[in-house]
Amino acid sequence: MKAWHWNGEAFEPQNSIPVEDRGFRYGMALFESLPVSRSTPLFLKEHLQRLLFACGEREFRVDEHALFAVGDVLRAAGRDGFARIYVTAGDGSVAASATHCRVYVTLEEREAPNLEPCSVAIPHEAYRPLFGGLKTANYWANIDALQRAMREGKDDALLFNEQAELISGCMANVFVVHRSTIRTPALACGARNGVIREWVLNQLHVKQGSLFVEDLQTADEVFLTNSWLGLHSIGWIGDRKIPSHDLCDRLTTAYRETIAAATMGEARVSAFTA
Fold first, then answer.
1. Residue 223: which H helix or E strand, with range?
2. Residue 32, class by beta-carbon neighbours within 10 Å (0-12 exposed, 13-18 middle, 19+ buried)?
3. End-to-end Cα spacing for the chain
4. pLDDT, tens digit, 9 for 90 and up, residues 151-171
5. Is the pLDDT of residue 267 over 60?
6. Matching CATH topology for 2-108 and 118-260?
7. Which terminal residue of the chain, N or C, has fewer Cβ atoms less than 10 Å from its own Cβ?
8. Considering the chain, what percentage of its residues have pLDDT values greater than 70?
9. Residues pairing with 237 in the sheet
10. Pairwise CA distance, residues 259 & 267, whole Å
11. How confident is the model at residue 265 (pLDDT cuts 50, 70, 90)?
């Protein structure tokens, strides 16, 4: 993994974080993650917009010059992989405002994901998303749900809130298809405002609202979206086989065409403007 820290003027290589930083001590950090293909950070503008929004929501004072420079540092790295942009609360007491935030960028090499239809579990416990589903460093609950699902022989888990409404997968948004009707959990249910989720919403007419276990029991198709996977069909929910993945396959073809156009310079998806 490569990592950089914003020193106030430029990004410099970094391999550690101060133990005084509240991002490390308390998980007080916000992030966005995105793939880098052919040295092109994909959908960077959209990810930075979400990060700025999250910083505003949590009153993190972030140096926007750092965010303007993220694209340059990732392009100059000269390698592909998966990048994360972190804004931490910086040093201070638990009561202090986040006025001296730190900004980090990481880039890790990864093998291409296995996109064979996956199997998912449905945990018995309710999931409680923090701050309306903002991406924070408090990821333990998601990891715990994923690990428990994997111990059951599953690839992922579908998370539900205390009102029994579907939220998402452990690290992905979810879409449910009944014949010609496509639905996804609303942001008010705790779903994250993901970039690939928005891409799907721009391709199709999708209803956003509340979904429950009963909707999954009768679904013709269910698929996940996130920035690393793109789109990923669900083949099994518990013991139920999901009969179709046709829509996900068609969307995946269109998504790959979007990515190919971006990396060939035919579409500018990495230029961030305030």
1. strand 221-226
2. buried
3. 29
4. 999 999 999 999 999 999 999
5. no
6. no
7. C
8. 96
9. 120, 240
10. 9
11. low
- 204, exposed or middle or buried, with CB in 10 Å at 0-12, 13-18, 19+? exposed
Please state the rounded mean pLDDT for residues 242-263: 94
What is the C-alpha separation between 170 and 160, in angstroms, rounded?
10
Locate 16 and state its tokens: 């550690």
CATH architecture of 118-260: Alpha-Beta Barrel (3.20)
pLDDT value at residue 132: 87
**Residues in CB range of 206: below 8 A, 6 or more apart:** 175, 182, 183, 184, 200
Centroid of chain to Cα 245: 22
The CATH classification number of 2-108 equals 3.30.470.10
- Structure tokens of 211? 């979904």
- The rounded distance, in Å, linking the Cα atoms of 196 and 78 is 24
Which residues, 6 or more positions from 93, have their beta carbon under 8 angstroms from its beta carbon?
none
φ, ψ (nearest 5 deg) of residue 253: -60, -45
Q: Positive or negative CA dihedral for 114, 118, 121, 122?
A: positive
Domain boundaries, the chain: 2-108, 118-260
- Tell me the residue length of the chain: 274
To the nearest whole number, what is the mean pLDDT of the chain?
94
